Amino acid sequence: MTSSAAVEQPAPTAPAVPSTTPSSPVGTPTSGRLRLSQLLGYASGDAANNLAFSMTSMFLLLYYTDVVGISPAAAGTLFLVVRAWDAFADIYAGRVVDRTMTRWGKFRPFFLFGSLPLLLLSVATFTVPGGLGGTGKLIYAYVTYALLGLAYSLVNIPYGSLASAMTQVPTERAKLASFRMVGTAATIIMLSFVVAPQIRSSENLQQSLTLTTLLFVVIGFGLYLILFRTSRENVVRDVAKVSLGQSLRTLRGNRPLLMLCTSALAFLTGMFALQTVQAYYARDVLGDANLFIVLTVVSTLAMFVVAPVIPRIVGWVGKKKAYIVSGLVAVVAAVGIALTPPSLVWLAVVFFGLYGVGLAAVNTLMWALEADTVEYGEWRSGVRTEGTTYAVFSFTRKLGQALGGAAAAYGLGIVGYLAGAEQQSPGAVDGIRAIAGFVPAVFIGIGVLIMVAYPLTEKTFASMVGDVAARRAARTAEAEQSPAQEA
């Protein structure tokens, strides 16, 4: 790592997109191969992240309404407010990361010092004191959930940014993204088997959830330590601590980041629209609420199928083409979900599995593509801003989560869904099918169309890395010659 006294002047203005032929072989991303221990360590990091993130996204609403006694309307407002807070917390965390440089690197210290507060806040979030009264419980829920979101940003933003600092090899970055998705899927499935049975059968759910989250503190901290020990920040940077002005210059004109964020916004809106109504689809369309677990497991298991082959696919066709094709697979599957007759349950399960394949592939490729936009920003400005770049990307993803959930909720009202009704009207059932299928298909399709014009291919990426390395070599040579001339 270079010190903060390194040259901080931006590079000369570069053309909008580099040529497809590298101007110099120096720095072409042929080094940076990762060991299996590093890949597994990176997977353990996202497994640990999801002990907090997926635990809240899967079970916190039910905990607030059924255990704490917060009304659904109040809980819905709480989620809307805190998720908006979370999005801006990401931006703050990105700036903190870009200003940081320690003997352990820029990102790794956050895993060592931020992980334990994050996991303990997860315990506090799922342990609302019973003697506070209605208003006191709601205030406690707001404070603990908001602090949990801030703590999560201060760990997750460095974690996501780390991938672009570990290697510049496209296939290796694809491996990191694939192992990350495996870590996510492993935790989600574990939570389904460990926590879901407690909700159905625990005699004291509050005590059970408190003990479970305390156990997750031990497991999660161990996983974060593995991430800390195995990860290394290998990519050279010219500026160790990045100012706000440098961050803004790097973001300004980063067309690939803007396009990726817009595509991710559309994609996440569609994805969370289906996720929000999936339980309604299982219960009211297919006629069996227990099928929700089947649909969830089928979709999640697709991550294990897709993740190992993504690096190979990237090596064959590149990330951009793989993203587009995977998105089209998800679109076709979503249309199938909407059109499947309720009597053909097996066909709905098949389409959910196919949807999970497309979903897993696009989500995996997003992380690898985001890392490439860091290189583009450095190529244009001369400064690497991994933290801020990832924070902007994460901000748009969280905005997509909020929009997707809102679109589904508003859609249920429009189609005439009646809460508590033993049976929904035919129009409401058809409306749920449309929300579950056509809404994701439209939004994911928009995301695919945006990526058709995405400018970064593997050739342009190699050219950028070569240009940056050549500039760095030229500055180094000039600095070495100056003392000799003065002597």
How would you summarize this macromolecular structure in one to three sentences?
The chain is mostly helical and 487 residues long. The chain has a single domain, classed as MFS general substrate transporter like domains (Growth Hormone, Chain: A).
Structure description:
- With 487 residues, this protein is an all-alpha fold.
- The chain has a single domain (36-470), classed as Up-down Bundle (Growth Hormone, Chain: A).
- The protein contains 16 helices and no strands.
- The two termini are 28 Å apart.
- Mean pLDDT is 81; it is low at 1-31.
Give the SSE layout.
Blueprint: H1 36-68, H2 72-98, H3 108-125, H4 133-166, H5 170-194, H6 196-201, H7 205-230, H8 244-251, H9 255-285, H10 291-306, H11 310-317, H12 319-339, H13 345-381, H14 386-414, H15 426-452, H16 458-486
Task: For the structure shown, list the relevant keywords.
mainly alpha; 0% strand; Growth Hormone, Chain: A; 487 residues; disordered N terminus
Total helical segments: 16
Report how far apart the termini are. Answer: 28 Å
CATH superfamily: MFS general substrate transporter like domains
Low-confidence stretches: 1-31
Integer tally of domains: 1
